[in-house]
Design a protein that fits this description.
- The protein is of the alpha/beta class and 146 residues long.
- Helix content is 32%, strand content 25%.
- It has four helices and eight strands, in the order E-H-E-E-E-E-H-E-H-E-E-H.
- Strands 1, 2, 3, 6, 7 and 8 form a six-stranded parallel sheet that branches. Strands 4-5 form a two-stranded antiparallel sheet.
- Strand 6, helix 3 and strand 7 form a beta-alpha-beta unit.
Length: 146
């Protein structure tokens, strides 16, 4: 059985809602899925035993990209996560009126790629409240890559 880890950082609850929907879809597809808040994990050996890691983070800040507070320590230590040749997908919520719409998603995806991760699908960037159908559709794409 394939194993997935979904790690999210959420302040308003939108990114957490997306993570919950993703977890439901992956589980229905027979993928053993672990869902963790970024505040409750450390980067060390994060990917051990996992076939894919999904990172979810909301974006704050107008003048510069600001990752969600709980996600920052994980992002800073991502080198320790063992992402080389691991399948990775990134999602997040933001507000398109900001200069860096979902910039945290781009930052995480870029860093994971530089660390040798295999970015398996285009990132999911949600403007405002998540649409269940949009999230489910993206989750289906992810499932095809596991």
């Amino acid at each position: 059985m394939s194993k997935a880890l979904i790690v999210f950082g959420s302040t308003t609850g939108n990114t957490e809602s997306v993570a919950d929907i993703l977890s439901e879809v992956l589980e229905k597809k027979g993928i053993d899925t672990e869902l963790k808040n970024a505040a409750d994990v450390s980067a060390a050996s994060l990917s051990d035993g996992k076939d894919i890691i999904l990172f979810g983070c909301s974006t704050w800040g107008d003048d510069e990209i600001e990752l969600q507070d709980d996600f920052i320590p994980l992002y800073d230590d991502l080198e320790q996560a063992g992402l080389k040749e691991k399948k990775v997908a990134v999602f997040g919520c933001g507000d398109s009126s900001y200069t860096y719409f979902c910039g945290a998603v781009d930052a995480i995806e870029e860093k994971a790629g530089k660390l040798g991760a295999d970015i398996v699908v285009d990132s999911l960037k949600i403007d405002g409240d998540p649409s269940r159908s949009e999230v489910e559709s993206w989750a289906e794409e992810v499932c095809q890559k596991i």
